[in-house]
């Protein structure tokens, strides 16, 4: 229902980006003032500890703990991540071809798909990391986009990520 269809998708499911225990260091006026730690006990019990430390320029423990909680909330569970999609340009209308060919590095798009065509559709907001155009006999013209997840970004003038009420301004995941 709407959007531009793709004919090939590569997804990853795994723990590569998991963080279920996170330490965030914060600074006072001249030196490290402390560390705020957040963890997800259920995730640690299920998958083991995946810890990470983030060194920040935050000035107090409340902000550091908020960042740690935010990051653990996002990365405590393994999840599907769209890695790459390929679009068959010859199967698209002229308008959809122009839209697809107008995408650039860094553009933010939403990918919707149903893994194995079973269950509910998944939706992920991603940014375009690389673009590869291929011309072969069949399909004669295709374009592949390598993608990475875009989380909690605020992008001025962006229709999806330019709304303050739906994103966390200040944290980039």
Through-space gap between termini? 30 Å
Report the C-alpha radius of gyration, rounded.
20 Å
Strand order of the largest sheet: 1-5-8-7-6
Helical percent range? 10-25%
State mean pLDDT (0 to 100 scale): 82
Major sheet summary line: 5 strands, antiparallel
Structural class: alpha+beta
Instruction: Quote the beta fraction.
Output: 35-45%
Uncertain stretches of 5 or more adjacent residues: 166-173
Helices and strands, in order, run as EEEHEHEHEEE
Please tally the helical runs, counting DSSP H or I stretches of 4 or more residues: 3
Based on Cα principal axes, name the global outline. Answer: elongated
Count every beta strand, where a strand is a DSSP E run of 2 or more residues: 8
In short:
The protein has 173 residues and is an alpha+beta fold.
List keywords for this structure.
elongated; disordered C terminus; about 40% strand; alpha+beta; 3 helices; 5-stranded antiparallel β-sheet; about 170 residues; single chain
Describe the structure.
- The chain is built from three helices and eight strands, in the order E-E-E-H-E-H-E-H-E-E-E.
- The protein is α+β, with helices and mostly antiparallel strands and 173 residues long.
- Residues 166-173 have low confidence and may be disordered.
- The chain has a five-stranded antiparallel beta sheet, with no helix packed on it. A three-stranded mixed beta sheet has the order 3-2-4.
- It starts with 7 loop residues before the first strand and ends in a 24-residue tail after the last strand.
- The protein is elongated.
- It has helices at 41-47, 61-75, 94-101; strands at residues 8-14, 21-27, 32-39, 51-55, 79-88, 108-113, 122-135, 141-149.
- A hairpin with an 8-residue loop joins strand 6 and strand 7 (122-135).
């Amino acid at each position: 229902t709407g959007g531009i269809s793709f004919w090939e998708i590569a997804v990853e499911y795994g723990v590569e980006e998991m963080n279920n225990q996170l330490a965030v260091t914060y600074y006072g006026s001249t030196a490290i003032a402390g560390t705020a730690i957040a963890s997800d006990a259920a995730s640690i019990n299920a998958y083991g500890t995946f810890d990470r430390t983030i060194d920040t320029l935050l000035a107090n423990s409340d902000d550091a703990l908020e960042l740690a909680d935010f990051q653990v909330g996002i990365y405590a569970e393994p999840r599907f991540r769209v890695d790459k999609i390929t679009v068959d340009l010859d199967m698209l209308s002229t308008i959809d071809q122009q839209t697809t060919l107008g995408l650039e590095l860094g553009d933010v798009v939403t990918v919707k798909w149903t893994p194995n065509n079973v269950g509910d559709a998944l939706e992920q907001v991603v940014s375009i990391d690389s673009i590869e155009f291929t011309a072969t006999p069949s399909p004669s013209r295709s374009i592949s986009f390598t993608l990475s997840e875009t989380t909690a970004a605020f992008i001025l003038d962006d229709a999806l990520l330019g709304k303050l009420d739906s994103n966390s301004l200040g944290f980039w995941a």
